[in-house]
Amino acid sequence: MTDYDVIVVGGGPAGSMAAEAAAKQGARTIMLEKDRDIGYPVRCGEGVGAFGLKKFIEPDPAWIATTISKVRMRSPDNTLIDFGMDDAGFILHRRLFDYALANQASQAGVEIQTRAYVDGLIIEDDCVRGVKYQYMGEHKQLTAKLVIAADGVESRVGRMAGLRTATKLKDMDSGYQATVGNIDVDQEMIDFYVGSNWAPGGYLWIFPKGNGMANIGLGINGIYAKEHSAHDMLHGFLDKYFPKASVLTSVCGGIPIAKTLKKITSNGLMLTGDAARMVNPVTGGGIITGMVGGQIAGDVAGLAIQSGDYSEKAFDGYPKRWHKAEGKTHEAFYRIGEGIAQITDDQLNKIAHRLVKTPSENLSLLKIFTAVAREKPKILLDVTRAFAGI
Ligand SMILES: Cc1cc2nc3c(=O)[nH]c(=O)nc-3n(C[C@H](O)[C@H](O)[C@H](O)COP(=O)(O)OP(=O)(O)OC[C@H]3O[C@@H](n4cnc5c(N)ncnc54)[C@H](O)[C@@H]3O)c2cc1C
Predict the structure, then answer these.
(1) 3-class DSSP assignment, residue 313
(2) What is the mean pLDDT of residues 148-161?
(3) What pTM value is reported for the model?
(4) What's the CA-to-centroid distance between 15 and ligand 1, angstroms?
(5) Given 16, 111, 144, 310, which is the most exposed site by the fewest CB atoms within 10 A?
């Protein structure tokens, strides 16, 4: 007899979705979160697409800061291109959004324990059988039939079980973001700045949060992060363009723009969300993809509990279903991201000069793609091969 059927480590979007899905399959499930609060501190730009989100939860004005209908891109030489959007986007209040997801999980029967820092695994007969954790200064442990690690980008649980979670420098962006007040930006528009002067190997973003506030952040690719500090670049940007803005809070964190880990399961263990590297490698967005991965992991966990088999073999459906739902596109995006990384500032400017002549309503994906391909023909090949799975 184990304390629980399923233990989920980490109370972010991936963890809550995993826990909820497992509980819905009848598994006795507990979710352990190291911080005092679910959803806090927020280490995120908080931007999501409405379409992806609505598959999991009904949008609630309580946790939606702004609704986005316009996108603007700024090239290295300051050329502005306005895009329309097929799908609306939201800038969330992640603190409240993560609460809502955890609440949804608890309503499905999940127990939640905050301030529970998992610092070890119980492993018997080469199978994960539970976790060791610290709670309010006490060392405790819980047993379970299986564990789902949704412990984010800095995940230690996978490593504890012997999975290879190391990520190459080029596959990790160094992110730094400030939530600022006293700023006058279009509340329906998100702004992206591309080029090495704004964010080498990555991009800078401005996401409006309503009431004169915005999330302004940037991600610098790992290979440039030694010479360029994300913190210094962002503060340089704020001083120059928004000198009157006040920084209300700031966060830093790694953004894995990697392929999903080769192995995301072992006996008694599944990794999900950032811990499994499920972030979109081009945009760095990982909220929705983490929820997709988490839900599949939780569902597979529930089925494994019903079958009584918690071996790695019993979790086969998890990587397969992830691959079908997102993983295949994810791999294609990874290869496209590699191509994009080769585009120089000069080429970005030329692409922008071509696109700026097209009215935003006529700026189809094909037009953008054609402009990019004219400047960088190899990308045409990369995209075709990526989507053909070659
Ligand atoms: C600066 C920045 C900006 C970003 N902007 C966006 C954006 O605009 N849109 C988007 O979609 N994505 C964005 N992302 C990525 C996004 O934040 C993540 O992909 C997403 O949060 C992943 O969800 P998750 O549940 O896998 O991990 P997390 O949300 O990181 O949750 C993991 C949880 O596990 C807990 N935990 C960790 N270790 C332990 C342990 N040992 N014991 C117990 N609990 C533990 C953590 O406290 C945390 O609550 C951004 C990331 C960064 C760094």
Answers:
(1) helix
(2) 96
(3) 0.94
(4) 10
(5) 111
